[in-house]
Amino acid sequence: MDITVAKTAGFCFGVARAVEMVEKCCKDTQNKYYTLGPIIHNKHVVEGFARKGIAPIENIDRLKEGEKLIIRTHGVGREIYDKLKEKNVEIIDVTCPFVKKIHNIVERHHKEGYKIVIIGDKNHPEVQGINGWCSDAAEIFATPEEAENANPHYNKVCVVAQTTFVQEVFKKIVTFLKKTCQDIVIFDTICNATEERQSEAYELSSVSDVMIVLGGVNSSNTQKLYSICKSVCPTAYCLERIDDLPQGCDFGSKRVGITAGASTPAVIIKEAIGKMENFESFEALMEESLKTLNTGDIVKGTVIEVRPNEVIVDLGAKQDGFIPAGEISDDPNATTDSICKVGDEIEVFVVRVNDADGNIMLSKRKLDTVKTWENVKKAQEEGEVLEGKVTEVVNKGMIVNYKGYKVFVPASQAAEKRDADLSEFVGKVVAFKIIDINDRRKRLVGSVRVILDAQKKELQEKFWADAAVGKVYTGVVKSITNFGAFVDIGGVDGLVHISELSWKHIKHPSEVVSVGDSIEVYIKDIKEDTKKISLGFKKAEDNPWEVVKTKITLGEPAQVKIVRIMPYGAFAEIIPGVDGLIHISQIANRRIDNPAAELKIGETVEAKVTEIDWENKKIALSIRALLPAPEVAEEAPAAEEVAEVEAPAEEATEE
Ligand code: F3S
């Protein structure tokens, strides 16, 4: 079944205003209020108010001084106001401002000697009220035929319309009147809300197989909507509630249009949608509503007592309502006093009335559930970011709890990386967006990744806007490879090459950094076209060839550590990162053939710094220079000869 609900269905401005004003009266339990006739043409609303002590009366004669009378949206004639004033009865006037405007037009023109013509139904209370502003002297026509039969010939005519009248019929009657009357002033007082409702009903009917019009049987605008729908869509029903649908109706896969009169409350429309769609949760609420007449109302009240097992609510009616602890919130751990306190205004769903103790059972949880669903739909439409706690990992994703609703987040949408370990998120609050809704099954699909992607994009744009060679960042090591480490420097990854990680020779980047380390780096190079960034890590002041300058002096001894032994000599570490060569001829004060026989790796020896070549990073050391000369001269090479001896470049140069 394909269901379309008219956008204009439900309370119009005038009715919403009236209902709100009467709700306020309900809260005043010190005074008795009456309405002259039903407040609006909807049994459901009128009965709801009656239960709260607002009683409809048909005659004002029974009213006594000091009592209060609510004048309904349809309005009344001047005479009623005068009588009420005489009786000293307080008036709460909820006449729709659009109707009031007609009263003013009619009263003014009547005084100026115009004949008043009302185009509308003479039995409708609104029309009778309007007539009461010209001493009941108006001509009233409901059809062009009525006007033609009357064949009026007036010299000064003021024409107004019932607010809920059908525009086309109004125009036909006016056309006729223009032919027969002189000096005619026409006020098209058909309410916009009515026009919009009627034209939308017409359009919806023309694309629907079935039309359902919800509203009171005595509601003029509902009946007009019904006749419009029926004229276009033969399978049309006019119902007070969806349960009035004849038994056995099966709409299969038909296109069903739903509209409603201006005095039909939203709860009746929602009930209809819920039942038509087999809307499980709402149907459950409505299931309960069948038990009593006023079950299903959504009302506001004031918290007057908070007990551990229930909350007592003053509904402005004769009885107080109670919310059992389990109906206060979706959170099973929530306590009553954590949700509300005495004096709070609270909106609740009426679950049941007249229980064993004569109380009204209420639920905040059920109302919250319906509201939350509406909010979730709005959040999807508006791309709003929601927050919820991850409750479990399931096959192919994880579940996030959003105000009692389970949101499935597929693994591909749960994190930046598709293969992320989702169990890490359990118990954590995550931000997400709704990416899919199944209204009928009440299923939600969310994405955390869309938010992460958007954040990343924003960071990247910010980064590229002010990235420059030399700029320093504190980044996080994201991954390590044989040739270097990738570091996140704010939504963008750069590479620190292995040679940039340390002044010393290292075999693998992991000798210096680990994944997750926070390190300070600077941009060495940016390739704008490929968006590749090379990062530097080691600092100039840590360059051991700079440091060693403060540690040794040419011609002075130094403590060095033997680190490698070669056939032509031994390398000794002066400081980490800087080695010097002790040539074989400089190891002892006698001729030796094998350096390994004289020195051991790891051994610390004292050697004289005999030569420094800063440019080529070469330092020559001599143990022999610190030893006493041998007693018997040997065939040692001359000093100049030693200086000439050099190790192969790759061995002598250490960075
Ligand atoms: Fe007023 Fe128009 Fe509604 S006249 S009561 S707003 S239909």
Q: Count all strands and give the number.
A: 32
Mean pLDDT: 87
Ligand types: FE3-S4 cluster
Main structural class: alpha/beta
CATH level-3 fold name of the domain at 98-190: Cobalt-precorrin-4 Transmethylase, domain 1
In the CATH hierarchy, the architecture of the domain at 98-190 is: 3-Layer(aba) Sandwich
Could you give the order of strands across the largest sheet?
A: 13-14-15-17-16
Low-pLDDT runs of 5+ residues are: 279-293, 638-655
Distance between the termini: 78 Å
Instruction: Report the C-alpha radius of gyration, rounded.
Output: 45 Å
Q: What's the name of the CATH homologous superfamily of the domain at 98-190?
A: 4-hydroxy-3-methylbut-2-enyl diphosphate reductase, catalytic domain
Q: Estimate the global geometry from the Cα principal axes.
A: elongated
DSSP summary: helix tally? 17
> In CATH, what is the class of the domain at 98-190?
Alpha Beta
SS strand fraction: 25-35%
Helix content: 25-40%
